[in-house]
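Q: My labmate handed me this sequence with no annotations at all. I'd like to see what the chain might look like in three dimensions before we decide whether it's worth expressing. Could you predict it?
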Amino acid sequence: MTQRLLTFIVIQWLFGISLLMAAPASSNNPASPQEQTRPNAESYFMDGLACLKKPDIACAQVALANIPSNSPYAKLLAGNIAASTQDYNQTFILLLPLQADKTLSPTANASLHASLALAYDNQTDGSRALQERLLAERYLTNEDDIRALQTTSWQALTRISKDILVDMRGDSVNTTMQGWIDLAIVIKSPTLNAQAIKSWQVAYPDHPAIAFIAQPLLEQLASKEAPVNTPETATSGNHIALILPYLVESFYAASDAIERGFMAAQATQKDTAEVKIYASNGAPDEIATIYQRAVNEGAQLIVGPLTRDEVTALAQGKINIPTLALNNPDGIPPTPNLYTYGLSIDNEAQQIVRIARGLGMQSATIVMVDGPLENRMAKTFSEAWVADGGQIKLQIAVTPTSDLGTIKTDIGNTPSDMIFMAANADGARTLRPYLDPATPTFGLSHIFGGILQNPDDVPLTAIRFVDMPWLLEDSSTAVTAYETESANLPPGEMQRWFALGVDAYKLLTIIAQHPNQAASFTGLTGKIRLNTSGEISRELALASFGKNGVILEKLP
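A: Here is what I predict for the chain of 556 residues:
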């Protein structure tokens, strides 16, 4: 559930600020050498916070056992443990009375209010949760800690409906709190633009959310609203060949969706270039012939082929004209005139690695359904994780004969900071109940079936994944411009292929007008970057499953 994700983020933050904890003040009476070296209640409390960061509940409970039961630090650590295990009733019982305690250190007070905020999140009391986080922020001095807390506050607010935010706004008399709520209301507008964020900044010139939240939002919106740096008809006058595997039954629907997306993008730009379709059969030994036929018939720009085998075979020959392949070749160095772009598993796995490593995760467990695609997901993630300095603690391959009941035990015996799930939506729904819900879990776009509010996805609650904005964002201009053209395509995979076709056209216009030049744009499939060597990368949006549907956390 969403609260589990917030719990993990706050515990990370608690661990960070615990390192800044000042030494306890000395008493008026000098202590004996033995007393000077004996850990006090506050020291054990800090040890407990460090344990919760891992997260290691048993370790935190050991630290708790060393604190005298009459110490407020015992009650505080017990309350933090309760919050991290989602026992929010106990969190309230233990922590509410401590708000009046004047003996707690700043770090302790910060953890007190942060845990209470999580408990109020669970009660869907966004107003009190925000109040608690604002109280926690008063005790912080480290910039990274403040930023982590503000990020958590923002994520919690964006999950609240506009109607409830308006009610919260009316109840609030705190200017800082009003600013947070007003910013959350602003981004709920279907006509959101950069000017709306600028107006908010004028209203709240000293608000703490300006630097970390509002300014990045403003820059993102400004970049989307900037004039397109290529003419609307950049490919006009050219003959374009679209090579797609229509003759392969399993690829027919994908080919059709790509063609629809490409033609929709061309129509939107009022481009009059001739587009001719060439059907391939997926055979790598025949793709060169089809390609040459397109060239001989006058093609000046080519999009395709689509399958990896065809692209690999094509890359081994001579490419005469600018060609945008829709997959990546296996082990082939860059080829002049060949640009490669597609729905790359490698790209998604690398982004998950960056996100998890950015959250401080060091070790990972891989749980996968044993199949060709899932094996490739697991392999790609593992290689990227290890290359970034991470450690793979455990890898579990689930087959039809596997005893699913042993998975949770195996993970418990070999704990790690995160779980990477290599599975599609159906496989993930089957496996999720057997995984440790307290361990942050990630997946690729395949884990999402494409329906934002799908009751079947409730078992996936709290899993984070990356996917293209086209499937996750339903109110931007970029999305609404293609709603009609894509309306009769099924959700999920076919919508992804449609978006690929749209962005392939946009890339082709850039390649046609500015070959060998760097460029970038925000498309339906993500943030697309083209470097001077012709290499194309894609950054996706980050989302998570909640009880009431998919939650968009961050756009690229």
